[in-house]
Amino acid sequence: RRIAILISGRGSNMASLIEAARAPGYPAEVALVLSNRPDAEGLVRAREAGIEALAIDHKAYSTRESFEQALDAALRERGIEFVCLAGFMRVLTNWFVERWQGRMINIHPSLLPLFRGTHTHRRALEEGVLVHGCTVHFVVPELDAGPIVAQAAVPVVPGDTEESLAQRILVQEHVLYPQALAMICSGRARLENGRVVFSQGW
Ligand code: GRF
């Protein structure tokens, strides 16, 4: 399956997907990296890896819809079948989400449904949870509320700061995201009536 990765920043999850997709037999091919920020570090990393990397600057569009139409056109022109959001920091409208529903996933740095939205590590520390983590989920119109494909739990340890916790979780994100994408693209995880159904043998 031809996939696109949407980013806004450094693109470390993007890099882990690109790396994983190089393995023989991996069921997805990274055909495009797209950023809404022209200065995203991840664009440089993608080009270095030989992947087409495109910036569509949301500031150049007067409405969310016109920006998303440009995104959608770029994806369709390249025959993209599946979209991975990886640190993509624009909220998507229902129009775009519905167009890609069942064909778009995101990685979120918390154990959903806890800590939807931003600053998840800070909030986890404030709440005093002792287990935190990351989640790969299908994207639905409601933010960070889609059906869960995969999760990894990470301990919070004494003395943790937002940064140390983020770093410990990021290591797990880089393992989890390629696994979750492979499960979907190989048909081992699929969406049925708004829930993720897993086949035996994973
Ligand atoms: C990751 O923590 C991801 O979970 C969140 O944004 C961060 C992106 O980091 N959605 P990177 O750009 O993949 O390095």
UniProtKB/TrEMBL annotation:
The Formyl transferase N-terminal domain, residue ranges: 2-181
Enzyme class per UniProt: transferase
Site (Raises pKa of active site His): D144
Record keywords, A-Z: Purine biosynthesis, Transferase
InterPro entries: Formyl_transf_N, Formyl_transf_N_sf, GART
Pathway the protein takes part in: Purine metabolism; IMP biosynthesis via de novo pathway; N(2)-formyl-N(1)-(5-phospho-D-ribosyl)glycinamide from N(1)-(5-phospho-D-ribosyl)glycinamide (10-formyl THF route): step 1/1
EC number of the protein: 2.1.2.2
Transmembrane feature ranges: none
Binding residues annotated for (6R)-10-formyltetrahydrofolate, in chain numbering: R64, N106
Pfam families associated with the record: Formyl_trans_N
Record: residues binding N(1)-(5-phospho-beta-D-ribosyl)glycinamide: G11, S12, N13
BP-aspect Gene Ontology terms: 'de novo' IMP biosynthetic process
Functional description taken from the UniProt entry: Catalyzes the transfer of a formyl group from 10-formyltetrahydrofolate to 5-phospho-ribosyl-glycinamide (GAR), producing 5-phospho-ribosyl-N-formylglycinamide (FGAR) and tetrahydrofolate.
Entry protein name: Phosphoribosylglycinamide formyltransferase
Source species of the chain: Microvirga subterranea
Gene, per the UniProt record: purN
